[in-house]
Amino acid sequence: MAVGVFDSGLGGLTVLNAVSKRLPDVPFVYLGDNAHAPYGVRDAQDVYDLTTKATERLWEAGCDLVVLACNTASAAALRRMQESWLPPEKRALGVFVPLIEALTERNWGDNSPPKEVGVKRVALFATPSTVSSRAFQRELAFRAIGVDVEAQACGGLVDAIEDGDMILAEALVKSHADALMRKMPKPDAAILGCTHYPLMEREFQTALGEDVKVFSQANLVANSLADYLERHPQMIGEGTESKFLTTGDPEKVSVHATNFLKRKIVFEAA
Fold it and tell me: Are residues 58 and 20 in the same domain?
């Protein structure tokens, strides 16, 4: 009865942490494609190929449902996977859905025409690949009108977080926030469009100011997944064991993951 959680590296551990707390009886198999991280600088075809390969590995681990806890994979690969690749008995979910649900205050299943929402100016912080895909803007446009989105590609931030260099990460957050606010001086809300970024949520809030509502993904994804599994309990796969898999060096990744979550994490080779 396992559910897969996939990320290009360690960022998805923020999502895993939240979904594990929200659904303590569900085993989760986490796969980090650390050998190929970061995805944010790769082209769409490369991200698609890597994401589908990782998803197949999670199927082997007994996961019929895979959460793409990676915004870049969600932006570049998910729609194509759902339309032409996934077999009928498998599902893949992305991390944009809960964000847009929260931002537009409407359920994902609400297929009514786009309408005006309270938020008018949105700052999107994401990887270069996610920004160039414009996937967030496209999905938002299906559900809301009159929302101006200003995107900022946060080059270097994922690497700094993965390396544990929080001094550099904090400096990059300030630099990217300053760059965005030169283009959009007074955003109403900010989207942290990468699963690494919740670790820097306080720094983003400080850089943007207390008047900006910051949307972070982990808890939103956890609540959305709980709702999905309540409606589709058959999608909990046959796997019974929680585990951490990596395409990288398990020992090295375990050390970084332990520092990342501040609790002992042991990875094994995927």
Answer: yes
Rounded to whole angstroms, what are the CA distances from 83 to 27, 80, 88, 106, 191?
27, 5, 11, 24, 26
What are the pLDDT digits (tens) for 191-205?
999 998 988 999 999
Is the confidence at residue 111, as pLDDT, over 80?
no
Provide the 3-class DSSP secondary structure of residue 191. Answer: strand
Q: What would the pLDDT profile of 233-249 be if each residue is shown by its tens digit?
A: 999 878 788 999 999 99
* pTM recorded for the entire structure: 0.89
Distance CA 40, CA 71 (A): 9
The residue range of the domain holding 260 is: 2-95+218-269
Q: Give yes or no: residues 115 and 210 share one domain.
A: yes
Q: Provide the β-strand partners of residue 144.
A: 115
* Angstrom distance (rounded) from CA 255 to CA 259: 6
Give yes or no: residues 87 and 167 share one domain: no
Task: Decide if 154 is catalytic.
Answer: no
Q: What is the CB neighbour count within 10 angstroms for residue 6?
A: 26
Asked if residues 28 and 62 have their Cβ atoms less than 8 Å apart, the reply is: no
63 is catalytic: no
Candidates 194, 212, 220, 245; catalytic one: 194
**Among the options 50, 65, 69, 70, which is catalytic?**
70
